[in-house]
Amino acid sequence: VHIVESGGGLVQPGGSLRLSCAASGFTFSRYGMRWYRQGPGKERELVAGITATGGSTTYADSVKGRFTISRDNAKNTVALEMNSLKPDDTAVYFCAAGNQYGYKYWGQGTQVTVSS
Asked: Which of 22, 57, 66, 95 is the most buried (most CB within 10 A)?
């Protein structure tokens, strides 16, 4: 199983970034996908999730209206579009695959830094 995140970087407050996650080694279309993040000195938190079919999404209150999760089951990818970024969004962002039994497949993470 391989999960690889990309698209992180340094962005100014109010800016945008698009994170991508490429997955292989499992039946992608049967797994829910989530983005988590862990900021400096903070616990890991769930940012956004999308069901296996893409029919339902969920977001942390702190990112609702600013972030959008999407997936392409034909390409085994999931994306996180992040707009109106704030310094508090600074974190390592992780992509994870799982189901009702748990999210057991994780990527290595990509750093997002929001700073002027």
From this structure: 95
